[in-house]
Amino acid sequence: MEEVKSAIEAQLDFLSDLFDKVRGEIRSGSQPAIDNFIGFFHAIDWKEPWLISLLIFHVIIVVVAITSRKHSNFQMILFLLALGGVYLAENINHLLGSNWRKFAGQNYFDPNGLFLSVLWSGPLLIIAIIILVNTLFNLCYLIVRWKKAELKHRARLSRDKQE
């Protein structure tokens, strides 16, 4: 019995040490990512008109997505346009990278497309997720309405049979 108890205590000590190591790795590992994220946003000149226009564009699209939540067909078109914008991000990055002098103070468009992914594709994907979640809620509401109508219909049929 003592051997089992000591084996369990040894296992618990091992798991506790392992958990402490993993927690330490996560804490130390997330700090460089946060520093890179902050450095990325400090490197951008947010006063450039095209960046302000891009942010306003995303805000308008979010407002349109939220205000049109009852119009499923329009939402699906907006959803497909948002995903189409994400799909075309690589081509847009190449086009803007070759013409950046015409509208920007510095070249933000690296060959990997990080900048455009963060400021173009990221918000479009968030908008697409908002539309998708709204569509799922609408579908759930529609299923509930359908089931209620079905139950009312069955109740009416059984009442008519009894009469």
Question: Would you write up a description of this structure?
Answer:
- The model has no long low-confidence stretch (mean pLDDT 88).
- Helix 2 (49-67) packs parallel to helix 5 (114-162), helix 3 packs antiparallel against helix 5 and helix 4 (89-98) packs antiparallel against helix 5.
- The longest helix is centred in the last third of the chain and has 49 residues, at 114-162.
- Helix content is 83%, strand content 0%.
- The termini are far apart.
- It is flat.
- The protein contains five helices and no strands.
- With 163 residues, it is an all-alpha fold.
Notable traits:
mainly alpha, flat, 163 residues, 83% helix, 0% strand
Topology:
Layout lengths: L1 H41 L6 H19 L4 H16 L1 H10 L15 H49 L1
Helix pairs in contact: 2-5, 3-5, 4-5
Q: Indicate the proportion of strand residues.
A: under 5%
Determine the structural class based on helices, strands and strand pairing: mainly alpha
Q: What sort of overall outline do the alpha carbons produce when their principal axes are compared?
A: flat
Q: Specify the biggest β-sheet.
A: none
Radius of gyration, in angstroms, nearest whole number: 27 Å
How many DSSP-defined strands?
A: 0
Tell me the span between the first and last alpha carbons.
74 Å
Concise synopsis of the structure shown:
Helix content is 83%, strand content 0%. It is mostly helical and 163 residues long.
